[in-house]
Amino acid sequence: MSEPSDTVNLDVLFRRLAGEMRQLEQDGLRLEGWITGAMKETDEVMPPVSAALQNLDRLLQTLCELGLLFDGLADEIEQPPVLKLDRAIHKVRLRDLSLALTGAAMPCDAPVSGEVDLF
Asked: How far apart are CA 70 and CA 109, in angstroms?
């Protein structure tokens, strides 16, 4: 894994944010597909689940559009300022996200344990 950087050009940060949003959208689409498949198996209309799916769909569409916006903004920056990330990135509590935003290379094939963290 490469070392994270405490500075980043604004356009690079925007592209990293867009990439994270695309990944979240893909994860959400898989989740949406699983839920829809489970609903079809039961042949039962469940209004709370349908409402949750509609909210999930809205979230996914918003993630997609924000990702496009950040990519577009990155394209528009001609002389990107360099940002210091150290203080801001310490506010991000998700380790993998903070590493991704600081440019640390993530292991590609991390083992999947099959366990779920419930909060």
From this structure: 27
pTM > 0.85: no
- What is the Cα–Cα distance from 43 to 102, expressed in whole angstroms? 46
Strand partners, 8: 83
Helices within 43-94 (DSSP H only): 47-76, 86-89
Structure confidence by residue, pLDDT tens digits, 41-50 = 887 777 888 8
Residue with tokens 């609903």: 39
**Ranges of H-type helices in the chain:** 10-42, 47-76, 86-89, 95-101
Domain ranges of the chain: 10-79
Residues in CB range of 57: below 8 A, 6 or more apart? 32
Strands 7-9 and 82-84, how do they pair?
Answer: antiparallel
28 exposed, middle or buried (CB, 10 Å; 0-12, 13-18, 19+)?
Answer: middle
